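Q: Focus on the chain.
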Amino acid sequence: MSDVIVVGGACMGAATAFNLATRDVRVTVIERDPTLRHSSTLRSDGNVRIQFNLEENIRMSQYAMEVLDQFEDLMATEGHQPDPAARKQGNLFLVDEANREAADIGLELQRGLGCEVAWLSHDELASTFPPLVSERIVGATFGPNDGSVDPGAVTQGYRRAAIARGAVFETGVVLSLLREDGRATGVTLGDGTTRRADVVVVCAGAWSTGLLSAIGVEIPVQPVMRTVYVVATDVGRGLSLPSAFLPSGLYLLPEHEGTFVMAWSLPDDPVGFDFTPAHRDRFYDVLWPELAGWLPVFDRLEVVRSWAGLYEQNTLDANGIIGVWPEVEALYMATGFSGHGFQQCHAVGRHLAQLITGESPSLDLERLSPARVLTGSAVYEHAGRII
């Protein structure tokens, strides 16, 4: 019998297991597919940013930056040192007149919490990153230490380090959670066997909803499929460009000379577990006009490939649901991150381990606890941050 069973072995489950194992907790992680090929983690673009407008999200990002700066050493095991392939190309949030006030409020909060974030005026933007400006843009907020890392390398780094400290990772399909006398006591697997534990942690992304619903725990999280496009263009050749986020939410991440990863979350994105990418016509008919409307320099381009991945979309407020479910003792969860779970796994894994072992949490994430689901108390990012 394990002290803790973690359901889900992607970044959130692996980080939680590592933090528990470092506290000498006997932890077993159960993952249905060890390749993680459909996980939101491996289908993530790996972006990490300090630029949020909710204090809890900013604090989690600050901790993520600390961990990632030391990741190779922190997760080193005998014969292996993970390389998260960190790139600090910066994140640039473009601002139009309608969103200027919201951007100023966010910038003030971020700086007040010690974040290195700058305001670039239209003229400064034109001279620094000339392809990423137009007459519709009045300026941008720029986080020079934002960037991207390899989600697979981070997940495997946590997994190896957790195993080296005693954690067990099993392949198995969790069919249901066990609930007895108001307490979570383990899981039932697809082969009919059960695994018992003192604590159960659900880190199964968008699959968490079904598992929890089966024992009467209802959360507002659904699988929203988003298609990501890799685009070739002449824009930016010879320049070092940051990742750019348009006021509408469409974003473009530079990969190498003239190649960008682009996506845009829209209300009509399909809900479900079909991983077939949207047809490329969707890019040309919907995303491209939006992109060229803001940045006319992208008037010529070509989609070279695409893939689809899940947002575990929290329909209450688009922020993570982190902690213990008030109505079921010993049942913890981390889900509903709505696109920013990968970058928050470091802080969430530590937070869950601290809650489970009775430590005082390093971060106050009480507002993001599952209790708010029961009361319908939404905790939103500021209206100016729509990604």
